[in-house]
Amino acid sequence: MASSTSLTLLFFSFLLLTLSHAATFNVVNQCSYTVWAAWADLSNNGGGQQLNQGQTWTVTVNAGTAAARIWGRTGCSFDGNGNGNCQSGDCGKLACTSYGSPPNTLAEFALNQYQNLDFIDISLVQGFNVPMDFRSTSSDCSVDIQCTADVVGQCPSALKVAGGCDDPCTIFNAPQYCCPSGSSCEPTTYSEFFKSLCPNAFSYPDDYNNTQFTCPGGSNYQVTFCP
Questions:
Q1: Dihedral, CA atoms, 170, 172, 173, 176, nearest 10 degrees?
Q2: Which CATH number do you get for residue 52?
């Protein structure tokens, strides 16, 4: 039987989530080209939207959602039923319910977690396809993460693919790049390349050097492609 302390902690955790509001993410395309925005989490929640230059898509995500991400897809073609494929960030359909395939620049988030904080980051662990800015739009949080360098233009030849700069795990499928579960990884020449251009983004799975940021639970956010 659970102790009274455990029950109390469970009650307050539930209460925090109950009192927390869903988060709003405004996804803005400032690129000179069309980007097909997407979001998904591990519970098969998600969606997608074609964004021409200057267009915005508003996504509402429930409090407590974890392991979620927003990304942009390029070179997409879909049929009338929303099925198709993309050159980068592909999930097989317009309205994603699963993560996209590399390369794709990721805005990752977990809402209302430890101490009711949101944890947010930009990740290049799955490579890079579209420049990104990920920021809070709430007055009580000033977090602003950017990865706007010309990563594709400077991409190492071994990582260059159609649509972007791929990640070394996808290209080489080697433990030092993929960081298998239960193991730890060190920086590599490739991760150091990504880190040099986007120092506040995850460059490999174990990169926690100024890469993870927090806001109070209930904050709202904006993800901008080509800021």
A1: -110
A2: 2.60.110.10
